[in-house]
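Lecture notes, part 5. Sequence design as translation. It can be helpful to think of inverse folding as translation between two languages: the language of shapes and the language of residues. The source text, in C-alpha cells, appears below.
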C-alpha cells in the first residue's frame, strides 16, 4: 500500500488521503477494502479507480479519517514533515523530516507505534538531494491529474493534447513539465537506492 497524498486538517484531527492499494489476488484486495470500510475511525471511503497492471490488481482509494494518536498527528503538530509513507509486508515505512532533537522525536514516536528500526540522516547529507528532487505545487498537480486521468496507463486513457487542454497549457509546455517531473522522481529513486546500497 502506498500513500500517494495525505492532507491533515489541523484543529479537526482529521486527514484526507489518496492511497494506492495493490495485491496479486483480486479477491484478497476486495476483502481487504471491505474490511477497511468497517474501521470505526474512517468517515468516508471511496474507491476512485481500480485496474490491473502486470497481473497485479490495484485500487486507488480516497479516505477521510481521524488521525488522533497517529504518527501523522505527531508529524503535523511537532515541527516535522512527512516525505513518504509506504506499507508493505505488514510494516509501515516512513521518511520524516524533523526539526526536533532526534531522541525527543523518537521518544514521542514510540508512544504511538512500535519502532522496529530507524535511521537518522543529517540535513547536510540530504538537503541538497531533497531540494533537487522535490516537486513544486504545480508539478504535483500535473502529476496527480496525469495519474488520475490515465496518462501513464497502457494504453493511455488520455493523450498529451487532451491532458494539456484539461490543465490549460499547451502541449510543448506540458511535455517539458512531465520531463522535469520524471527527472526529479528518477533522481530521488536512484539516489535513495544508492544510499541503501541497492546500486553502486
Amino acid at each position: 500500500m502506498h500513500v500517494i497524498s495525505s492532507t491533515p486538517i489541523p484543529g479537526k484531527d482529521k486527514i484526507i488521503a489518496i492511497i494506492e492499494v495493490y495485491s496479486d489476488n483480486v479477491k484478497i484486495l476486495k476483502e481487504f477494502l471491505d474490511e477497511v470500510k468497517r474501521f470505526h475511525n474512517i468517515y468516508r471511503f471511496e474507491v476512485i479507480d481500480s485496474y490491473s497492471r502486470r497481473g497485479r490488481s490495484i485500487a486507488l482509494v480516497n479516505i477521510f479519517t481521524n488521525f488522533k494518536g497517529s504518527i501523522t498527528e505527531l508529524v503535523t503538530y511537532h515541527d516535522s514533515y512527512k516525505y513518504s509513507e509506504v506499507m508493505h509486508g505488514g510494516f509501515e515505512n516512513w521518511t520524516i523530516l524533523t526539526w526536533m532533537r532526534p531522541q525527543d522525536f523518537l521518544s514521542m514516536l514510540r508512544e504511538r507505534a512500535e519502532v522496529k528500526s530507524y535511521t537518522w540522516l543529517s540535513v547536510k547529507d540530504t538537503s541538497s538531494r531533497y531540494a533537487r528532487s522535490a516537486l513544486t505545487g504545480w508539478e504535483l498537480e500535473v502529476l496527480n491529474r496525469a495519474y488520475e486521468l490515465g496518462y501513464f496507463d497502457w494504453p493511455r486513457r488520455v493523450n498529451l493534447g487532451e491532458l494539456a487542454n484539461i490543465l490549460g497549457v499547451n502541449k510543448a509546455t506540458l511535455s517539458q513539465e512531465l520531463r522535469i517531473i520524471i527527472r526529479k522522481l528518477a533522481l530521488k529513486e536512484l539516489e535513495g537506492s544508492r544510499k541503501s546500497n541497492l546500486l553502486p
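The translated text above is only one of many valid answers, since several sequences can fold into similar shapes. The first strand starts at residue 2 and ends at 9.
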